[in-house]
């Protein structure tokens, strides 16, 4: 059984969407919350020298002390694939039609439809239900490059979209920029809507065959801008990892 990551969804209301719950789903946007992440099946594959396993990726995640004061870890959305690599599987078709609402959830990398070899993820929230989620995925072959290409297509497609949830329809705008000198390639996207208080900053950075994605959802006017510098710190650690 392929281990799935915890998916933290957000609510689009008159204030900034915030973390609500973890859900189970077999599609590109869902992740099972059952069981321990370190209990991945031994059949998933033996570790390979050029791929970092989940245990190693976990050690590269930022600790809660790297975040502003007041955050605490959410154990339901903190997991990794352990020492075993996940079994290879085929890429899913890119589903642009269903991708946009998934940008409002921590596991937005799954909009790419590209399966990983391993991952580690940690989620943090504060008393205001603002959320920072960090994830590191390793990929086989050229899959990391393909992830970045697909994420760019998703973000471009979702430059503006309507999101209806909890009785409110939000006109969401996604402003995406390419950033140089951070990893091998980096995308930064800022989500905002007139109906929200605050916004969300998404960052995806590729370092070799590893892709780092972060999700920083806040109620302040900076839209979670601090998520970019936090991602840079993770990328620096990954670049020197062995």
Q: Which strand-content bin applies to the residues?
A: 25-35%
Number of helices: 3
- The helix content is 10-25%
Evaluate the radius of gyration.
16 Å
Global outline: globular
Task: Give average pLDDT, whole number.
Answer: 84
Which class best fits the helix and strand makeup? alpha+beta
Uncertain regions spanning at least 5 consecutive residues: 1-49
Characterize the biggest β-sheet. 9 strands, antiparallel
User: What is the CA–CA distance across the termini?
Assistant: 27 Å
Along the chain, the helix and strand elements come as EEHEEEEHEEEEEH
How would you sum up this structure, described in words?
By secondary structure, the chain is an alpha+beta fold. Helices cover 14% and strands 30% of the residues. It is built from three helices and eleven strands; from the N terminus they run ββαββββαβββββα. The chain has helices spanning 54-59, 143-157, 226-239; strands spanning 7-10, 19-23, 72-73, 79-80, 118-125, 131-138, 160-165, 168-179, 185-192, 199-207, 210-218. The strands form two sheets. Strands 3, 4, 5, 6, 7, 8, 9, 10 and 11 form a nine-stranded antiparallel sheet that branches. A two-stranded antiparallel sheet has the order 1-2. A hairpin with a 5-residue loop joins strand 5 and strand 6. The longest helix is centred in the middle third of the chain and has 15 residues, at 143-157. The chain is globular. The two termini are 27 Å apart. The model is unreliable at 1-49 (pLDDT under 50).
